[in-house]
Target: DUF4880 domain-containing protein
Amino acid sequence: MSSPHPESSESGQLERQARAWWARLHSGQATRADADAFKQWAALSAAHAQAWRELMRVWSALDPLLAEEAKRQAQQAQQAEAARSRAKGHRFWPALSNALHSPGRRAFLGGAVAASVTAGVLAVDPPLGLWPSVGELTADFSTATGEQRQVALGEGVSVRMNTQTQINRLQGARGLALVAGEAEIATAGESELFVEAGGGRLQARGARFNIRHTGPEVCVTCLDGRVLVSVNGQQRSVEAGRQVVYDPSGLHEVVRADLANVSTWGTGVLSFDGTPLAEVIAEINRYRPGRIILRNEALGRVAVRMQLSLRSIDNALVMIRELYGVKLRSLPGGIVLLS
Model:
């Protein structure tokens, strides 16, 4: 399936390459050979150099926002690690806590972003999603923002990948690892398929299911057949039309699924009915390049009812402004502030 936001033009390709270089050079694993290779890339043409200058212009405009986002991600990383430690009965890892909160640790961007996170954290979970993560650059299969694709893996396994999704093959097993994102997976025949995501493991044979891992929670919806979900020694059998959610603390109870809502991304339409604006914005950000940032918590609780076509996702901003009286401020790099 084609992307609603293809980067097929030369400028789009150079922009993506520039972001990839940014991620590599700030991943904490860059070598002198990487630096030399980057210099050669930037000197290939005036367009290459311009793509890099434009990226720097975006970062300059976004310094305060990146600082806020980096601090927020540091807090989320601490909370997630604390939850995992409680689930395992261990104390929170002091070294991570110190790394995240040491006043002497500062993010990169030429010292502009003063945030208590390491370069490694930012490479794994980039602030504002404005450059590729390490997972995106190294995944066996991946989709860009707004892209969807179908992958046939052989042996009766097919995968339909949604936007911003990264999947790896499992070594030594007939299975996959969903690093992040969302996918609908179908397996035929008698062979068992294993899928790992967010600390959990799925087993399926002759089944079709949707799995979404876009935050600390993983949501598994069985569309046909049966899926066995295991997390931290707990197990749930999920039948067709049922759904289960799990997070680092364990498995929740199996519930009836809203199948129409689960599968709507495959139709090219996003539908919201009484959904808090904060959740609507988070969903739109999965499909739209750049980032929409909501800067009003009260506004984020407003219930939203609308339908959006993925092929004209930017119309969402106009609709939100007109329907809910939101103020918009546009910044470079596709960043939009809502207040």
The chain has a mean pLDDT of 78.
